[in-house]
Amino acid sequence: MSTKKTITQKARNIKLLACDIDGVLTRGEIIVLSNGEEIKIWNVKDGMGYNELFKTFPRIETAWISGRRSLQNEKRAKTLKIDYLLQDCTNKKEALKKNIG
What we know:
By secondary structure, the chain is of the alpha/beta class. 41% of the residues lie in helices and 25% in strands.
C-alpha cells in the first residue's frame, strides 16, 4: 500500500481540526488604526487549504481558538465556514474541551 493511501486512510479518522489564529493563520502582527480598528494579514493559501480540506474530508469539523477577540477573526471564520470560533481564551485546551467536547 502506498504511503499516500495510508496517510489518507488514517486522516479519515480525524474528526476535528483545531488551530490557533494569530501567528498560525496570520503573520502574528496586528495593526491598530487610530479609530481602534484592528487589521490582520491573512494568507490566502490557508483559505485554499481549508477549501481542499472540505473537499477531501467534507465531514471534518473545524475550530479556531484565539486569546484575543477580533471582528476580523469572526469575518474570516465565517468566510471559510469554520464550525467553531473560540475567542478570549486564556486556556485554549480547556476552552476546546468545554465548547466542543
